[in-house]
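All the exercises in this workshop are built on plain-text protein records. There is nothing in a record beyond a sequence line and a structure line. A learned vocabulary of local backbone shapes supplies the integers on the structure line. The question running through the whole workshop is how a given chain folds. Here is such a record, shown just as it appears in the course material:

***
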Amino acid sequence: MRIAFDYQIFFLQSYGGISRYFVLLAEQLIAKNINIGIFAPFYKNHYLKRLTTNVVHGYAFSAYPQRSSFLMRQLNNMFSNNAINNWNPQIVHETYYSKKGSAPKGSLTVITVYDMIQELFADSFYAHSNTTNLKKIAIERADHVICISENTRQDLFRLFGTKENKVSVVHLGVENSLLDYQVKKNQQLRPYILFVAARGAYKNFDRFVQAFASSKRLKNEFDIIAFGGGKFSFSEIALFSKLGLKIDQVRQISGDDTFLNQLYDQATAFVYPSLYEGFGLPPLEAMARNCPVISSNTSSMPEVLGDAAEFFDPTKNDDIATAIERVVFSSSRTDQLIKLGQKRIKNFSWEHCGDQTIDIYRSL
């Protein structure tokens, strides 16, 4: 069986969840002796370095030349389609949404849908974004659609009217490196609650901070560390000041996966206040590092986290604050969540994701 991945996400992302998904999936296909080819003629994605040159057909750029994005896309599209056509795969798994497919005549098309965030939270995105239209076209064109959660699958049916018999659910996995990696703890850090994600709109970071600040106990004894998402905006800094939070009590930090592992290890708890997620890997990553998880009770979160998280209503400040207090001020609840988390992550492995995906390819 010959499976091709097209260039799209490796052109768009240097790092990012979708490109990492396809590289980890490729590793599983290779381990199962599936003939996999990634056709990304000119790419900037760092995760592709994990794969061998006989799998990745293309040339790596640290960054594209200025003002060359349109040209690079056109070159990628032309050379990728030609290379895929010559390779003659049984299935092309498209890595993002496009108007025209990458599969040559006689090949089948699979596409993965991660969430319906742009459709449900349109105000949070660029007004002239064409992603929803391209997504509809790509889904209609595909012979089969993979959703990364049952919640996303149900949203797809409700919002796009996609036929149920062409959609399957395949959950993502937790990387083994998260379970095995050892870190040296820094005992000088003040106790903190960890947030990992972009912070805008549906990610609900501002409400989380407001809930935190509404609790005198939390405010007096903990800091907040926000990993990733870029530096705080002026409006965020103004909010912290208005809420009476001390200077540096809410800190933004960036770094690599190794540093993130250290933050998980040392955090008193991990909080995930998002209003919507197609799957939500960070809570599982926290569980893998023995960090208790406190999460919103919306979208895919109950499906993914099961009984291994303390849940709250993400629209209510008092509910968020109370849920955090129930965990960080209770050693017994903390220990319970850590044990439940270690049990829960056994349900999510990249090997299982690979096996289920291969089953879908074979069924086609």
